[in-house]
Amino acid sequence: MTAPAPPAPSTAELAGRIAERARAVAGVVRLTAGPRAEVVTYRPGPPLPGVAVRADEVRVSVVVLPDRPVTETAEAVRAAVAPLAGERAVHVIVADLADPAETTAGDAAR
User: Fold this and answer.
1) For residue 22, is it within any domain?
2) Which domain of life is it from (predicted)?
């Protein structure tokens, strides 16, 4: 007899895991809900900006450093979060470029 599969994470838990992976990608400064606050996960406590998990897709909205091609950073985010998305399509939105003068040394090192 096989052990039952562990329960699937809640939407909020999944969004949190996706956010951690996206933030860890080199060139990502932060997640953002976007100009119309459309990319957000509501959960107990404060909303999680920058990740929206839907039945058929995951949206991740980021602010990136302009030190490498934006498409490369977006593809790296997609590759990092896709294993968590299951069968959902992953859409990465680069909402803004960070001002390098405003980033900290820690941000630039990521």
Assistant:
1) no
2) Bacteria
- Which amino acid, residue 101? A
Question: What is the DSSP code (8-state) at residue 54?
Answer: -
Dihedral angle computed from the Cα positions of residues 18, 20, 24 and 28, in that order, rounded to the nearest 10 degrees: 70
Neighbouring-strand partners of residue 34:
none
Q: Is the pLDDT of residue 29 over 70?
A: yes
The backbone region for 45, taken as left when phi is positive above 0, alpha when psi lies in -120 to 50, beta otherwise, is left
The answer to whether residue 18 scores a pLDDT higher than 80 is yes
With respect to residue 90, please indicate whether it lies within any of the assigned structural domains. yes
Where do we find the tokens 């909402």? 95
What residue type is assigned to position 102 of the chain? E
* pTM: predicted TM-score of the whole model, two decimal places: 0.85
